[in-house]
Design brief:
Elements lengths: L9 E4 L6 E2 L2 E2 L3 H10 L3 E6 L6 H10 L9 E3 H10 L7 E5 L2 H9 L3 E3 L12 E4 L7 H12 L3 E4 L5 E4 L2 E4 L1 H9 L7 E2 L6 H10 L6 E5 L2 H11 L2 E5 L6 H5 L9 E3 L13 E2 L5 E3 L2 E6 L2 E5 L4 H17 L9 H8 L6
Parallel strand pairs: 1-4, 1-13, 4-5, 6-7, 6-8, 8-9, 9-12, 13-14, 14-15
Antiparallel strand pairs: 2-3, 10-11, 16-17, 17-18, 18-19
Helix pairs in contact: 3-4, 5-6
């Protein structure tokens, strides 16, 4: 039996919404990822969160029941540090704006991390690496602006404008990058998702070819767009931010290759939706098409099959010029309701 995971040598897995939500593991995630690792598939966990060092992330994942070491975690801080290390000589001073993860990432690649309060800042730095940190102050942002105005290279770990927390959405690193951007005349180089450097670094850590590496994510505009930008196959799971409806409405730049309700799909043969006659798409007993501004479905099938045919039909209709915005909410609910069942 050829399962989805057996097609690939390595996995680049997102965290929030795929492995955990808050402090709780996403249902089936730990078992599915553990089974992939046992079967010999290497897994790297890639996160846009620049503030936490890999060991802290690894400890959290370990507490959920996953087996891994800190080097199995790749952060956007590390992607930024590697980007700068390719351009600067060893030991070059870099202004580190953000949490501990930013400073440690620079040290790992042989660059000298200079914190905003360090007197060495006034002597000049070669670059600025800006990531999120809970203790980032106006002074930190001002020092970044001064350095950039003086010609320092500016790399931002990610441009996420918001950060999900247990209390709601908080300002993300992108919001703080925007503050600095108002004071300077250049844009930063962004290395986190949806840009490709984080995925490229993850593949290097895995030691796998892009074509044999699978990205897993829940969010279209970061995880899945990043995979498309990198040329990496991706699996969307409906356990996090982007809903099945969001995926059905996605443009080519955000479309995953594979669709599933959750990570159990890794250990099953993947049955894709295929075009049939009269605009219908079929998958494992499910059928769907878009006609006259409505989504039509037929057949009795599991949630994964229903998800795949509905999304395939919507993508085909959109690519043919149909306006899917006219589809009523009740139609979406009826077409996709079974993606939410077990």
């Amino acid at each position: 039996m050829t399962t989805l995971v057996s097609r690939y040598d390595g996995i680049v897995c997102d965290l929030d919404g795929v492995v955990y939500k808050g402090t709780d593991a996403v249902p089936h995630a730990v078992e599915a990822l553990g089974g992939a690792r046992t079967a010999g598939t290497r897994i790297v966990y890639a996160t846009n969160n620049a503030s936490r060092p890999p060991r802290e992330v690894a400890d959290q994942l370990g507490s959920l029941g996953l087996t891994l070491v800190p080097t199995d975690v790749v952060t956007s801080s590390q992607a930024g540090a590697h980007t700068l290390a390719a351009e600067l000589p060893a030991g070059a001073p870099v202004l580190a704006v953000g949490g501990e993860g930013v400073t440690l990432a620079l040290a790992e690649v042989g660059l000298r991390a200079v914190r905003p309060g360090d007197p060495a800042v006034k002597s000049g730095v070669r670059a600025v690496l800006q990531g999120l940190g809970r203790d980032v102050t106006w002074t930190d942002l001002a020092e970044a602006a001064f350095a950039i105005q003086g010609g320092a290279r500016w790399v931002a770990t990610n441009a996420d404008t918001t950060l999900p927390t247990h209390r709601g959405l908080a300002p993300g690193n992108g919001a703080l990058v925007g503050v600095v951007r108002h004071a300077v005349a250049v844009d930063p180089v962004v290395v986190g998702k949806p840009e490709s450097p984080l995925y490229m670094l993850a593949a290097r850590v895995l030691g796998t070819d892009i074509a044999k590496t699978l990205a897993i994510g829940d969010r279209l505009d970061t995880d899945l767009a990043g995979a498309v930008n990198t040329g990496m196959d991706s699996l969307y799971v409906a356990t996090g931010v982007s809903s099945p409806r969001d995926v059905a409405l996605a443009g080519p730049a955000e479309r995953p290759r594979y669709l599933a309700r959750d990570l159990r799909a890794l250990h099953r043969p993947y049955v894709a939706a295929e075009p049939a006659s009269d605009g219908w798409f079929e998958c494992d007993g499910a059928r769907a098409r878009v006609a006259d501004g409505k989504i039509e479905t037929q057949g009795s099938a599991g949630a994964d099959a229903r998800l795949r045919v509905v999304v395939a039909a919507c993508w085909a209709a959109a690519d043919a010029g149909d306006d899917l915005s006219t589809i009523e909410d009740s139609q979406w609910q009826q077409a996709l309701e079974r993606t939410e069942t077990t």
